[in-house]
């Protein structure tokens, strides 16, 4: 691997993520959205929440943090999932078209709970939860069963996702993101379609499991009341409408 993708001087060593002047612009039908991140620093083990209204750019930020979405412009984008290794210069990976390496970083270090769930309909609950473990070649050690038990979905391990309730599917998605014990879990509205009581219960289970696994958590949610009770650090963001409403800009930092 080329050294320029691993040791940029601006990558601060103690941080899992360090973003400086990262911008993503998205445009459709003459209406544009811009997300600006002047400075974002996330330390190992932190639990962070981005709380905001629909369309403010939560998924846009998370998709950049899991290397699915390439920023339009980057001052610095450093990722250091492993304290014993050099920080990775994600911007250089993008610029050199090193998509396999980005995919590999994601696979090894990040669990992603997608806003849409993202369960594979033709795999059983067990195999969905075991997916990242099997891709990484990890042996069966009871982690999937333990998580299923903790999340209250153990009786459903042999079923297909279609036969589960929305809340059960969301618990499977959370279990899947944790099962390969990644150092980071990123969760996009993991309880969005649940009633407030169920959402609160699942969110606190999620944080409890993340604590047990010593995982850094970054999540997007509307449900700030519950998130605050769980002691997460809230990222500041501000949204404004510019150019006669043709451009919406959100600035996130923290
Ligand atoms: N593929 C795309 N092409 C163009 N614009 C997009 C695309 N995806 C999202 N956008 C726009 O970017 C803005 C931010 O979208 P994003 O999905 O990040 O918001 P969000 O905060 O996650 O919203 P929600 O709470 O509804 O999930 C929105 O104005 C949206 O219309
Ligand atoms: Mg979203």
Quick gist of this model?
With 254 residues, the chain is an alpha/beta fold. The chain has helices at residues 58-65, 90-95, 99-109, 125-129, 131-135, 143-150, 166-179, 196-212, 224-229, and strands spanning 15-28, 31-43, 47-51, 73-79, 88-89, 110-113, 184-188, 216-221, 233-234, 236-242, 247-253.
Keywords, please?
254 residues; 9 helices; globular; single chain; binds adenosine-5'-triphosphate; six-stranded mixed β-sheet; Rossmann fold
CATH structural fold name = Rossmann fold
- Largest sheet data: 6 strands, mixed
Radius of gyration: 18 Å
Give the spatial strand order of the biggest sheet.
5-4-1-2-11-10
Helix-strand string:
EEEHEEHHEHHHHEHEHEEE
Shape: globular
Spans of at least 5 consecutive residues with low confidence? none
């Amino acid at each position: 691997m080329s050294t320029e993708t691993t040791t940029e001087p601006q990558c601060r060593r103690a941080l899992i993520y360090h973003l400086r002047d990262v911008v993503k612009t998205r445009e459709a039908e003459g209406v544009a959205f811009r997300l600006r991140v002047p400075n974002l620093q996330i330390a190992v083990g932190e639990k962070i929440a981005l709380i905001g209204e629909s369309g403010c750019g939560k998924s846009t930020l998370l998709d950049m943090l899991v290397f699915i979405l390439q920023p339009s412009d980057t001052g610095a984008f450093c990722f250091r999932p492993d304290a014993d290794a050099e920080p990775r210069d994600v911007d250089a990976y993008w610029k050199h078209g090193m998509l396999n390496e980005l995919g590999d970083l994601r696979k090894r270090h990040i669990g992603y709970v997608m806003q849409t769930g993202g369960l594979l309909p033709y795999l059983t609950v067990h195999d969905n939860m075991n997916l990242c473990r099997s891709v990484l070649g990890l042996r069966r050690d009871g982690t999937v069963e333990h998580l299923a038990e903790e999340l209250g979905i153990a009786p459903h391990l042999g079923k297909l996702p279609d036969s589960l309730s929305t809340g059960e599917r969301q618990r499977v998605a959370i279990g899947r993101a944790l099962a390969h014990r990644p150092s980071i879990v990123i969760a996009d509205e993991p309880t969005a379609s649940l009633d407030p009581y169920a959402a609160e219960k699942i969110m606190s289970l999620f944080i409890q499991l993340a604590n047990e696994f010593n995982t850094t958590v970054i999540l997007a949610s509307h449900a700030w009341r519950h998130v605050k009770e769980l002691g997460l650090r809230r990222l500041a963001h501000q949204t404004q409408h510019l150019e006669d409403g043709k451009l919406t800009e959100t600035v996130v930092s923290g």
